[in-house]
TrEMBL record:
It comes from Bordetella ansorpii. InterPro entries: DUF1468 (IPR009936). It comes from the Bacteria. Signal peptide: none annotated. This is Tripartite tricarboxylate transporter TctB family. Residues 5-137 form the DUF1468 domain. Keywords: Membrane, Transmembrane, Transmembrane helix. The chain crosses the membrane at residues 36-55, 76-103, 109-128.
Amino acid sequence: MNDRILGVFALLLAAFITWGGWDIEAPFSYEPVGPRAFPMLLAVIIALCGLWLVFKGGQQMEANPPGANGRIFMMIVYAAIYALLFQWLGFVLATALMTVFVGRLFGGAWGKCALGGVVMGVLFFLLFDKVLDVVLPAGVLGGLV
């Protein structure tokens, strides 16, 4: 039954995303599909997954292992903090910090998580900003990137 409940919530989320994203329009045309395409595509994918869960769900579910619920809650907290600090810190620092803390949640060593965070923040910034030409906030590193 948990799968079907999650499927219904996914369908509601897809409807909310569709409702919220339907009126998105750019003041000028800067790409062929426009800014509405991303939320609509996301809503379709979420709706399809929700339908799958509603119709194919219902298998017996195992309980979460000890500590998993706490990690899930902390992921939500980290995502909220990431969203709040994204503009101020900038993409590179916010992504690096998010990667470090998520890596620690899953048992990674501090050094490996820090290295992975820095590499991920810098490489994704270069990919999005330089290759894909997506403007990302530089934040406190404004003069360096």
